[in-house]
Amino acid sequence: MKKIVFILFAIFTIATSSAQMKNPVKWTTKTEKISDTEFNLVMNATIEKGWHMYSQFTPENGPLAIVLTFKNQKGYQLIGKAKENPYKKHFNADFGVDEYYFEDKATLTQKVKITNPKIGKIVVNVDFQACLTQCVNDNKDLTFEIPVLENVATAANPTDTVTTAVTTADTAKTETKAVASTEVKAAPVKKEEKKGLLMIFGFAFLGGLAALLTPCVFPMIPMTVSFFTKQSKTPAQGKRNAIIYGLSIIGIYVILGLVINAIFGARALNALSTNVWFNVLFFILLIVFAVSFLGAFEIMLPNSWANKVDRQADRGGIIGIFFMALALAIVSFSCTGPIVGTLLVESASKGGIAPIIGMLGFSSAIALPFMLFALFPAWMNSLPKSGGWLNTVKVSLGFLELAFAFKFLSNADLVLQLHWFERETFLAIWIAVFGTWGIYLIGKITLPHDSPITHISVGRLMLALLVFSFTFYMIPGLWGAPLKLINAFPPPMTYSESPNGVGGSTKSSGNEEQLPEGAEIGPHNLIVFTDYDKGLAYAKTVHKPVLLDFTGHACVNCRKMENNVWSDQRVLNILKNDVVVISLFADDKRPLPKDQQFVSKVTGSEIETIGDKWTEFMITKYKTNTQPLYVLVDLEGNSLNTETPTTSYDPDVALYENWLKKGLANFKK
User: Fold this and answer.
1) Burial class (CB in 10 A: 0-12, 13-18, 19+), 470
2) What is the rounded CA–CA span in Å between residue 480 and residue 424?
């Protein structure tokens, strides 16, 4: 009876343990013939719903990109780099770079030329990372069957291909079958996420509202509305013409978005934000826009354009109204041009239909007052009078353009890893820009087109207070403050002259030599071990429990936990004073010494790197392969939290603190 109970318990344990193992990506392979000596090696990934896998083109210092390693490269040659189906893009504030990723499906295609007609097969190792609330680093060997070329030449169907299905189980058998195919079909281009498009529309709409309050546009509202209401034969006709005028404005700017999209193409636009030269070009462009707004010069389209359009507007009818709207766009270009340019730069870098959505949002804000005031003429009385405040708005936009420009310069520096424009430099420039803007708003600085002022309005004073508050908020960032409100803009904390800020100590308690052997300075100036044995040995000398932090250099949610949970003073005090932190990086690609390399008895994988070693440790000890994973253990390596031995990504600070406290209480017992 006891044996039966033991067997049932063992089966239950194995079943529940394996259920915690994550294999969110399943791969299949297909070999497609192009010619007698050339083949496409097609790797299809099916990704579990909610998970995403990162592209091989993901920028450095971001999440872990796909790496393809072709084993035993004899008998064939690689032609170019593996191609991918279109990926999605999202800015990752924790890493300070864009991340490229796939959802649901991914297809990679590598073209090869066979030089040995009897090669038989090609083996490719795919190293990748997939994330949900946790991340899984994994690699699979994919086998491609290559038919003997002499036989292929006499085959009845020259388009025959070989497909091999590879399951995620390392010991699974492969199945080979012939299918007909002549080309690789990439997955269809997916639309931008609705949330991203709504944000683009919203920001563009705000940009349009800002453009309305400039000297080039605002005075045109009463003039244009009066023209339609007074010059039309009937009030109804005037309202109709004003609506057509507004729709024409929208049409003109949307056409501009379509042109940008057509010239560059969605996929080219998608790559702009990480292209060094485009980022430098955008930086220069926005500096020019900013200087123009500040009053150094006016950016204007040729007067001949405006004259020709005016003559067309005299034709009357719908065509004439359209050209009136075009005339407004040309005449107001000195004010709207920099805003439109900035919006196009930002939305174009998102790719897809983002430029069109951006121009729709901007033009809707511009057109709305012309239509509304024509429908409700009495509202015109509530409009404020034109005056010097319009130039104040224009100059304020100039300061914003100037600050925004340096984000693009920062992008270029991050991609090249030059460390010329690190976090402290970026923050110093932003503090100077916003501080000067605040001084301008309180009237201590005047610019070329400003009117003399004897006092400042309440609205201007309130804006000045807001700008000064933001400026003072940024100053502690020089000394290591995380600045969570703007963490999407400056370079990440790790990309700085000192990870702890200007004047911050990089030492644990006065002297780096006092660090224990095998320890280093980690997040928030914590003493962190990166080797389990050394960390556990130190914990025994100080008689403290160990927090095992299974993490990754490219783990998105690991950074979020460190930035948002570990940074909380309640949690940080525990990590600094009550436990020994051992951070084990599952994506550490440094090779293990040859005498420490082995084949896993659990997965059958070759354990060749430090990251492989810690991943194997996770799987064998805690039956999971995801990061982040946190385990509080005693000095013998046993879990201290009996109810919940491990915890993972959860931004709830109180929950994480309570979990730590329960483990500590058990340790003291």
Assistant:
1) middle
2) 9
β-pair partners for 165: 28, 175
Q: Please tell me the predicted confidence (pLDDT) of residue 346.
A: 67
Q: What is the rounded (10 degree) CA torsion for 174, 151, 42, 554?
A: 70
Cα–Cα nearest to 657, from 632, 633, 634, 636: 632
pLDDT tens sequence across 542-562:
999 999 999 887 677 888 888
Rg from Cα positions in the chain: 31
Give pLDDT < 70 ranges for the chain.
1-20, 60-61, 93-97, 149-196, 228-233, 260-261, 263-275, 301, 303, 305-317, 334, 345-352, 414-417, 488, 494, 498-513, 554
Instruction: Write out the DSSP string of 546-609.
Output: EEEEEE-TT-HHHHHHIIIIITSHHHHHHHHHT-EEEEEETT--PBPPGGG-EE-TTT--EE-B
Order the strands of the 160-165 sheet from edge to edge.
Answer: 76-84, 105-114, 38-47, 25-33, 160-165, 175-180
- The Cα–Cα gap between 332 and 594 comes to 70
Does residue 15 contact residue 154 with C-beta atoms inside 8 Å?
Answer: no
Strand partners, 52: 103, 131
What is the rounded distance in angstroms from the CA atom of residue 528 to the CA atom of residue 518? 9
Contacts of 263 (CB under 8 A, 6+ apart): none
CA-CA-CA-CA torsion sign (74, 80, 86, 92): positive
For residue 14, the model assigns a pLDDT of 40
In angstroms, the CA 37 to CA 114 distance is: 5
pTM for this structure?
A: 0.49
Candidates 506, 504, 514, 523; CA nearest to 563 is: 523
Alpha carbon 121 to its chain centroid, in Å, reads 38
Q: pLDDT value at position 552?
A: 83
Is there a contact between 108 and 84 (Cβ–Cβ < 8 Å)?
A: yes
**pLDDT score of 116:** 83
Spatial separation of the C-alpha atoms in residues 529 and 550, rounded to whole Å: 12
**C-alpha dist (Å) from residue 604 to 15, 88, 236, 407, 612:** 19, 33, 79, 46, 12
- The CB density around residue 253, as the number of other CB atoms within 10 Å, is 27
Give the span between the Cα atoms of 94 and 189, in whole angstroms: 27
Alpha helix (H) residue ranges in 349-444: 354-375, 388-416, 423-441
Helix, strand, coil fractions of the chain, as percent rounded to 5: 50, 20, 35
| Tokens, residue 379 | 């509202």
